[in-house]
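hey m, so remember when u said the tokens were messed up on ur end? i reran from scratch. heres the input so u can diff it against urs
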Amino acid sequence: MPLSTRESYRFDEFELDPSRRVLSRNETPVSLTPKAFDVLSYLVLNPGRVVTKDELLKSIWPDSFVEEGNLAQYISALRKALGDKSRLIATVPGRGYQFVVQVFAVEVETGISAEALPEARAGDIYVQRVRERTRIVYDDALPAQLAQHEPPLLLTGGSSRRARVWLWVTASALCGALIALVALAAYFVERLNGAAQLRISSYTQITHDGHTKFIGGTDGSRIYFTQDQPFGMVEVSVSGGVVAPILTTLPNPWVGDVSPDGSTLLLISQVGGMGPADSLWSLRLLGGPHHYLANAVSATWSPDGESIAYATASGDICVMHSDGTEAHRIASPGIYVKSMAWSPDGSTIRFSKEGILWEMTSNGSNLHQLLPGWGKSSSQWNGQWAQDGRFYFVADGQLWVIEVRPGSGKSLPAAPVQLTFGPMVWNRPIPSQDGKKIYASGRTNRGELVRYDKKSGRFQPFLAGISTEFVTFSSNGKSVAYVSYPEGVLWRANPDGSNPTQLTDPPVYPKSPRWSPDGSEILFVDRTPQGLDAIYIVPADGSGKPRRLLPQDREAETDPGWSPDGRKIVFSTSPNVGASSKSDLRILDIATGNVAVLPASDGLLVPRWSPDGLSIAAMTLDTMAMKVFDIARERWTKLDSGAVAFPEWSHDGRFIYYVKWTGNPAVIRIRAADGKRETVADMKGARYTGVYTLWMGLDPTDTPLTLRDIGTDDIYALTLERK
């Protein structure tokens, strides 16, 4: 009799279930957008055959016109999702794509005996379970192999008609399945009370405006967070409702943490962008003045509320009384510490340093990486303890839970267990006080490339509004390079965006790309497998793979830029995720390979070589302002620019354009000769996005470009329950 079955397919470590629209890797779901899933399904069902781009476009988008460049971005996203198995999808130049791996059918739910098989007919599909593996036979010949022990392995191309499916389950297969079920049951008994038994059972949306949010904490009845539009600190009930502002006169205030008794907030007044000018304050929620505590970039309360641990911009972690007295350093883990969290038993402090989780005792000893080898994407930005101290929740785009298990004399973290799956990007998980929910911001990442239109005074879609950032044009204006967002793929195309050529593949994620003056190569920054920011170079014509520029260097290398003659490269040793007082600017002589430190450049970052080659502009660490170095005189001049982000020289070298991101954000240009400033484009109320939240560049006419945020970002309550 015929089977009632789902058609699922297995290849390498993956399983594709078209009916449930789920792709999993070793039983763990893999996040894909709906169209990316459709593209993968079509390739999986046509393995070994070159599928033309036109065929894919007509099959996936039968009623819409879609450019080939968009299809290439979906292929890139699939390769990123498949991780180190990206070799499964091969590009056939000038033709299309080929799924170059054997595909097997997954075991179906009901079976029939071999005797019940109908008479075979040419072109039918049969499924046979042999040696615990399910294999597909698809051939135009009669499948006589069904009576043998070794049927053909490959699902080949052929007729696209829907064929009938039958299952032959051998006795040995049933025994194997029984053994597997027993083992699986034992596994769940062993983990009955652990993190593996937690799951998200429901989602409740708390806010509904879609604007970017950064959760600080909760007192049990309200959630305190920072929003970007309009910018400020606000609060909302845990059940939703009206969002109310928290009034303060501090510049750029961010909610840092909520005291254990719910009475007081820790605020970070972020003036210098994670620099030494950032200050830590306390604010009683029922009224009272602000109280200055220290200069800090991140902080957390002790579980009894009597102490505060905080991180400085210079890379120290200190502890003080809650009134700011008796501050003393306990550790020096390095710069850019975020998401500090003190364990409920008071013994441990965890934090994220440059996107990797670390922990130490509350007196600063035993400083070490929490889970070496996990999270190589350097994106474990946010973590928080549950009230009972048993679980630690982490966000790296998805939400994870790490169980703290009793060990021999110490607490040992178990392997992380993933709680959320899908296209939503999750950030800053805050457990409820009863441990039954997690409050987190859920975001859909999507941008629209826009260019400022002087006539209308507004930003308008550019290059058809594709979701890309770090847009940079070659010196002759005949090519453009950009990085797709959020996929992170470097592309080169004609100035109008036509004829795109892919230059990188995931997991490489290029940032700050720069054309060589002759247009033959592009510099960019990415993380090494060891977690170090480094400069890479790739041929602009797509003929080669990226290679590291200084493979022996053991310091950070960021924000590279060419000299106008193409003989030298200037870069910073500040990490990509923040400024450092220990950073400086360096110049690489390409011919000799020598690297020299630029004089008096301590604490500077984001160097930009002037078009005439006579000056180098850079941002200062203390106020994120601008300085210009006269190369001939070896002398720095400070420009009264105010807070600066994404500086760019005008093509004639007279001005430096930048984003003023404090107060009323705007694109400003400052004249290098005398420091005179003028507003180019108002960005007040604008929603922007990107890998650094904001990006600004210039087109060949010095018109500002940015990536407008068209995604959504809201706070959700995620209900936890045991499986």
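this time it looks ok to me. The CA atoms of residues 23 and 66 lie 24 Å apart. if urs says something different then somethings off w ur setup not the seq
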